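We modelled the chain as a single entity of 180 amino acids. Its sequence is:
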Amino acid sequence: MRAVFTPFKTEKLLMKTLIFPLLFVLAALLSAPFTAYSQVDKSTARASITAFLKAVYQSDVAPADIAKQYVALSTSANEFSLEKRYEIVSYHIQLLREGNSLSAYGTSRPTLDRVRVVPYRKLSKAQVVGFDLDAKQSQHIYAAIENGTIIRYFVYENDKISSFDYMTKGKDGPHYFIGY
């Protein structure tokens, strides 16, 4: 008995052999840029934070210039002028450079070739401090770690650092990032 191909069977065969594999390949190709973007974003954040630390600790660049290059100032309503906010963030950068800090971390100059920048979500439970965050906010936080010890937390959004210091509410209260 000879196989008879009707138009319906031919269409079904065409769908199985050509259309479905093409749709699968197309879907894979379209999703690749989004996956690549998230990887680039994380590596860009790490590189920017590392460059910021080098500018602070290994250069004579003025704190105001570091602030303008690496730090994003808040766009929300603020009682301070833009100039005053740059002055404040420059002062905080100078505190870092001198080995002082508002947070508990960063009291000494790090050896930058031993520092690695890690996304907050990859930290162990023992390394995480009590930031009042939701899941979306935590994807913008990174920690600079030297020899297994966190030396600084950063908020990195829109290709700039939006915070590199925090304060604690009360003795054991939640931690809040300082925005400029």
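As a brief sanity check on the tokenised model: The helical segments are 7-57, 63-70, 82-97, 135-138. Residues 7-57 form the longest helix (51 residues).
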